[in-house]
Automatic annotation (TrEMBL):
GO MF annotation terms: L-arginine transmembrane transporter activity; L-lysine transmembrane transporter activity; L-ornithine transmembrane transporter activity
Parts of the chain that traverse the membrane: 34-54, 66-85, 97-115, 165-182, 188-211, 281-308, 328-347, 377-396, 408-425, 463-482, 494-512, 527-544, 551-571
Protein known as: Cationic amino acid transporter C-terminal domain-containing protein
Signal sequence range: none
GO cellular component: plasma membrane
Organism: Rotaria sordida
Pfam family, one: AA_permease_C
Amino acid sequence: MTSVIYTLYDKLTRKKTYDTTTLHVSELRRCLTVFDLTILGIGSTLGTGIYILTGQVAHETAGPSVILSFLIAAIASVLAGLCYAEFGARAPRAGSAYTYTYVSVGEIMAYIIGWNMILEYIIGAASTARALSSYFDSLINFAMRTYFIQHLPLHSGIFSEYADLFAMGLCLVITLLLVIGIKESAVLNNILTAVNLTVIVTVVIAGLTVVNKHNWNISPNEVENITNSTKIIGKGGFFPFGFEGTLAGAATCFYAFVGFDLVATTGEETKNPQRAIPMSICLTLLICTIAYCAVSIVVTLMVPYYLINPDAVLPEAFQYVHLPTFKYIIGVGALAGIFTALLGSLLPLPRVLYAIASDGLIFRFIAWIHPRLQTPMVATVLGGIVASIMALLFDLKKLVEMMSIGTLLAYSLVSVSVLFLRYQLNENQLVNNDERAVQSIYTQLFKPFRLHPTIVSARLTKYLITCLIINGFILSAIQIFAQHRLEEKDPIAIIFLIIFLLTEIFFIVAIARQPKNAKSLYFETPCIPYVPILSILINTYLILKLSPATWIRFGVWMFLGFLIYGFYGFWHSSQRFVNDTQRLLSDSRSSLDNS
């Protein structure tokens, strides 16, 4: 029985391997530059966040301190981005977090991440198409909505109020562009992103001419004279909802930076990916952070936070300062920005499908490459059709949070993967002849720093990382679910918090003392192990903040995914055939040596 369990565990955790001759070989067309990747990343990130999220957080959660919310969210995103950048240098392949996890953690965890990334991109594309349709509809006085409700109503609580043919058409148009080729899609993305950035710069410059510093220092008396029967409007000042509101705003703003991982999915279509991917990720996050903070500063200085319209923040802000003509300039930028965000959601979807299907974990026909266009034709069409159907039928407000689980899990697993790989043995290390390989765990934990990993240190670090993740999960749960008791200074809750906090510090110190491998890369995540660990803890906290309904929908999607893996992927895995072949060759050599 034990041997059966060990064999099953061994198969579920088999890792994908690349040699130096196949790492850069791809059937896809390598045509993207650092500039193309950076613009793709900016386009997929600077969409709905600028035109919708800024107003919502400033009005309802953080007030003028929304600027700090974006900065905190940017730091959290940079932590994950640095880990993505290292893997882009290690394994420049299609698939992003799926491929990275397959290389370092194993097959079953990679499949879980890949399956959730599929859902993330589908929902992201469908919801963005709906957002673009709604924004365009607002510019024509909601003529489409009126027509669709009259002629295409959906009388069901499950579906949307009406069938949105315009949103469906947008998904299909983007799908057609992606079928033609990624370079052509990148050219269109470059043009639209340039328009979006030009509008943002124009908004910032024009807004700075009409700012009012008083809006950052509104007195409590002024707020008390305002009646608002539906929402709490805070206490005025720079932190009207307290620093807790700023942190809550940061949790929301974190999702404004989702999109930079698009860069990592293009590893097989990029020229010199080991240099281009890390550089593009860092540039994307830097430019997006500047843009978000600049717009937040201007908006909160133009309009008192409690008067900001969360649904149309920029047009209403310029209306407030008597510059109504900017409504149309902003409309052009918004349409361009949200369109590029839609492209940014649909572009990585077929790359992830292609990567998983190429490995045999889902149906292999999905990985078919068009011989002339050199694009994953089936994956692109399949992903586009599913996203367009969802955009047509579903009201995605309840589903948007669902894609957050996939994103946060992906970020966490990439950070874990970086930790695992940094503390494992290099392939060329002959540790079997190394006396340090037989050191005791006690010696390994408390020894002075050494230069190279050993068998014991590599295994020990895996256990420490696993314990750190579990302990961090419990620590976050205590902070979230026992928050009321902690505020009341309940001694039992405080004692448990201190115990798990000290335990977490112990694991961090123990991991930091283990020797790291010295493999040289073009880009390496700095401050190992602290950057990946901090990223893991932040993502764990945000995952636990999601609603129970989101976890139920996540469970249904995962059940479907495990059915596919159990009946197909486990048996058709390419790595399974590789491992079986290597085992047969090893057995044959052993038989020859014995004879």
